[in-house]
Amino acid sequence: MNRTLALLPLVLVAWSPFAAADSGVVAVYDTTPDALWALVDFHEPSERIMPPIAASARAGDGVGATKINTLAEGGGRIHLQLVHYDPRARAFNYVIRKGPLPVSDYVGLVRVTATDDGKARLSWRGVYRADGVPQEQADAILGGFYAAIAERIGETFPRLE
To answer: Rounded to 10 degrees, what is the CA torsion of 57, 62, 66, 72?
Structure first.
């Protein structure tokens, strides 16, 4: 897939005057950035860090790879596609192509960086529009998802912030 075309959804949503929401989580863990990256990398099973996900199936590697996450409650499927991947920078962006979440034009941005003392900082956020529900309800659903990710990772690596 052409790298420029793969990044187009990110650019359109991030710069759109209609992109209504930007929410997420930032957390610091008592581990190295590389160890945290090994856990959160798009290519790893989502159910390891996302309690709402019962199972995930990935096809492909790198930009263009897809993943289907099956929700534990109700069994709905969230279809994801990787649109930016930079393992050296420990960063990736993905889009939701379809699924039961009440959002559209969703772009997820995941970054793992080092703190000044060498601990691992996770930044996981999404840019999206509410779809079929009030913005506050979409924000609450996604906010719960991000909080669950941070908490689950904290079961593997102690959370410092």
So the answer is: 40
Two structure tokens written together for 107: 């772009």
Bridge partners (DSSP) of residue 81 are 66, 95
| pTM across the whole model | 0.86
**How far is Cα 100 from Cα 75, in angstroms, rounded to an integer?**
10
Arithmetic mean of pLDDT over the chain:
90
What gap in Å lies between CA 146 and CA 26, rounded to an integer? 9
The helices-and-strands tally (H runs, E runs) of the chain is 3, 7
Q: What are the residues facing 57 on neighbouring strands?
A: 68
How far, in Å, CA of 153 to CA of 133, rounded? Answer: 29
pLDDT at 29: 98
The predicted structure's pLDDT at residue 20: 57
